[in-house]
Amino acid sequence: MSARAYRLLFWLGLALVVILALGLVQSILMPFAVGFAIAYVLAPGVARLERSGIRRSLASLAVLILFLFALALILVILVPLIQGQIVQLIGSVPSLVRTLQDQLGKLILLLQEHLPAEDISKLRDLVGAKVAEALTWLAGLAQGMITSSLAILNIVSLVVVTPIVTFFLLRDWEKMVAQIDSHLPRQSLETVRGQARIVSDTLVGFVHGQALVCLILAVYFGIALTLAGLGSGLALGLLIGVLAIIPFLGAATGFLLAVSLAASQDGTWTSVFVVCGIFAVGQLAEGNLLTPKLVGDRIHLHPVWVIFALFAGGTLFGFVGLLIAVPAAAVIGVLARFALTRYRHSSLYAAPPAETGTIINIPHIR
């Protein structure tokens, strides 16, 4: 086996070990993943302060405090603004359930007029079984969220552990990068550094682009749903913008809540159609303008691969996997394009040179 094959097997084995290790500790990944993401975004600011003559530890502490202060300021401004709407949204859940029950009852009565009693009974049993399965799944999901949040990944861990992790990562960021660089194979040093720069640019582009998409969606849906007369329009807009960090989740959740609120609040099809129109315009703008221009052009991923990455990340690492699915897919895309380029320039891809026929000169016999 050649040296190149040994190196390939080594890196594949290392990647497999890392994935398995992350799967074993996925229940405690949340504060560390969030801390790493914050440190990655704030590291350039710390580097600028350090170049101006400030010690690395003081620069890290100053940047982190400024970030936390800005986050707290946003919460102080937003929470009083939408606090009443959040309470109203939570309080409307029982009425939403009653509205759904009433609609299902009317549907069953309508079907009873056109279907035999035997079919109605089968349909009722089928619907009951599916509803029970859905409630069981929701209960399991809620229980998992509650137990995991209270046991390990609760608010206290995010509030206390994440800033500590972020500070140490910011303080030792340059040392960690230098340490990793010192362990890179010397014969591939420039290649690895070049791909690392491309990966870094891709991740920065994704973070900036996705943040802009979330902000634009939050403003659009908050204003549009409020103008449509929805009682919790601003709260729903903020919820959609926050959940838009995970592609498709924000729009899907917001659409279900908005349609349910419109149906229970006004009880007319007009308000429901207005809400559907608002989400149709928002999704068209996001799918054809915002995400392709602000995110897609920077990560170069097809929407099908984004969906696959979300399912794979959620299956392997739960909620943390959903958060890191798209950035991880973008990194894998960079490495895959590099591997494909190397393959197309290798002897495995290139056609072998055509064999030249041998011409034998036979002397002419007179």
SSE string, helix = H, strand = E? HHHHHHHHHHHH
Helix content: over 70%
Query: Averaged pLDDT, please?
Result: 77
- Biggest sheet: strands, sense, closure? none
Radius of gyration: 28 Å
Tally the beta strands.
0
Question: In what range is the share of β-strand residues?
Answer: under 5%
Which outline best applies?
globular
Query: In terms of per-residue confidence, which ranges show pLDDT below 50 for 5 or more consecutive residues?
Result: 148-153
Q: Tally the helices.
A: 12
Distance between the termini: 58 Å
Fold and architecture overview:
By secondary structure, the chain is mostly helical. The chain has a domain at 11-183. It is built from 12 helices and no strands. The chain has helices at residues 3-24, 30-51, 56-91, 93-112, 117-151, 155-171, 173-182, 189-227, 233-243, 249-265, 269-299, 303-344. Helix 2 runs parallel beside helix 6 (155-171), helix 3 (56-91) packs across helix 9 (233-243) and helix 8 runs antiparallel to helix 12.
